[in-house]
Amino acid sequence: MGIGEVGSLEIIRSFEDGYILDGKPEEIFLHKNEATQNFMVGDTVQVFVYRDHQGRIAATMHIPKIRPGVYGWTEVIKVLPERGVFVRTGLTKDLFIGASDLPAHSKVWPMVGDRLYCTMKITNQGNLIGKLATEQIFDAIRVDADERAFNLDIDGIVVRTRKIGTHIFTTEGFYGFVHESERQFEPRLGQMMSGRVIDVKVNGTVNLSLIPRGYEKQDADAQKIWAYIEERNGAMPYSDKSRPEDIYEKFHMSKAAFKRALGHLYKERKIFQVDGWTYDMRLKKEE
Known about the structure:
The chain is α+β, with helices and mostly antiparallel strands.
């Protein structure tokens, strides 16, 4: 039985630390920590075969959710700059995905906690490495969207990054594309994103936008300004009379968006302005 395979093997010897399995022709080591219970010589166990940290051909009864030819979602647990990332598979030895299988620009590499859809691949040296799912794999597992998906709020994981856009696999199973004009920054591979469906294609895929709707963005801008006012103990040296370049430098928003956000705070009776400054309304009440 070879590396990366699942099968039933007979226990031919037993000792304190584990068991020796008949791998025909090789003997395979099953550590007791990798067994689900105590066994006797002659018992048959179902195992997954891999190469352990010491380079030995070993077995585990904790069958990993991804295997050669079997894809699944895995969590990134370590990032090695310029080299690649490790993902969790359930084995004692984590799975490595090399830089050649990741985006060309490391700024959009996944971070610890992000999730990747991948499988295992056996190298010429007999080691197991991770391999990301291709667009064809996602096309085979995706769910076709229909007109009911239009304007639907979605969550999804980035599965491919490109300069012209981002590919996302949604929690509904839709395969979506985000044009660069419909995102405020380039998301990283494996990142969970929220957006909405702006078009349903004839082939069942969707176009997505990661830019908040107008009223949502206004709320977000207002929250950003309010947080800054609170951070400065209720007063900031910006108002609807401030220069556009000063507003953009500080808040990264246009003056029009800034004024809309101030208007939102006015309606909530949170702020007032005096001589080019904006204040927390509670300061006025304290006078």
